[in-house]
Amino acid sequence: MPLILQPEPNASVLRHRDMILHDLTQLAEPGTVQSQIEARRAFETDALTAYRCMPFAVLLPRTTEEVSRLLAYCNVNEVKVIPRGAGTSLSGGALPTEDAVVLCLSRMSRVLDIDFDNRFARVEAGVTNQSISEVVGPDYFYAPDPSSQLACSIGGNIAMNSGGAHCLRYGVTTQNLLGVKLVLINGDVVEIGGSHLDSPGYDLLGLIVGSEGQLGVVTEATVRILRKAEGARPLLMGFNSSEAAGACVSSIIASGVMPVAIEFMDRPAIKVCEDFAHAGYPLDVEALLIIEVEGSEKEIENQINLIVGLSLQHEPTVTRISKSEAESAAIWKGRKSAFGAVGRISDYVCMDGTIPLSTLSETLTVIARICSEAGFQVANIFHAGDGNLHPLILYNANTPGELERVEHCGAEILKHCVAVGGCLTGEHGVGIEKRDLMPLQFTSIDLQQQMQLKTVFDPHWLLNPSKVFPLDGRKAA
Rounded to whole angstroms, how far apart are CA atoms 224 and 140? Predict the structure, then answer.
């Protein structure tokens, strides 16, 4: 692996691999433990495909009880466990180590309970994000909607606190999660939260969301379901510069108008997405905003008029309001397929930092400068409404040294995000990608406190151990 270092493997585990596999097989249902090289290779990487490492086994449990037995054994025998959902992590959050087993929850994909009166759904961790909305539709939906929602699972969403285009109005996973069933590394099964908005006691749910599988394994989740608005409509606005588009976003948010979503795409991203989705995006602009509002027809009309009025000071060259459901679907198809569309033409690294909205124009200029000076093209596609940036830096993975250089560019972008008052990640997590950048945002005391908290849940650091925290200084945890 080019830049990412991994801890030294546990020689004892590798030496006793056959015995461990035998014991795990005895504890699990038939077909749960997979050790064939073909099966393991499918789990050697996640969506951060620049890095890969084959685990010595893959566990595919079907029940919480089975997860409990497997974790208890791994704890006693000091076997590292890499929890995994659908493998869509863009930060290397599910990257294995050679002395680890991957615990994949994809077979736990049942919808367990739907309560429309109290507006919640209880599902297993392997249920995909979009399938929740499909099951509770057509009148209700689950709000967080990552671009990978067709594939990503709710367990992974909880681990990374995933968001999506509509998080501006409805919030990210943490605002839409009511409770979880969590299996600790010693096999204990605990219930945290419940089926209502506020549970008594400490807010342990707030610890679990975004913990990247380091505190326990979520096997069930109770999520909020919301009633759909009467109607929704997106509009497109094209601008002669990214700075003008960024300033327009700031004006809309500062005015108090709250759209459901505000998405940003620059010229390279517009062209790639239009070539793929044929969404009707204008190709003669430098930046495009997709802004969606919802409500009654009158509310939609009023909000659109306010937004169009606010935009005039930033001189949009194109303003196009959707006139049909088909046009709205095409607009969102282009945005939702953006990462895949870029992947058709180039390798890329997708960054994920957040910034204060007041620094958006400045940050777009800095991103362009950093990438240009390094000789890379960049396509900017991100959730502009809440300042969650997703610059896609294009490179050639087959050219020696380019991955190291492109990662350096990404690090410089994230350093800027932190410097202007933002943070290292918005929804992709830290994983291995940003692990060694954590000291940029947190002091050594901050990191020690976080590591001590992990140690309370996982004394031997067996759950996803090589992620989030820099390898230096871990002994003090």
Answer: 10
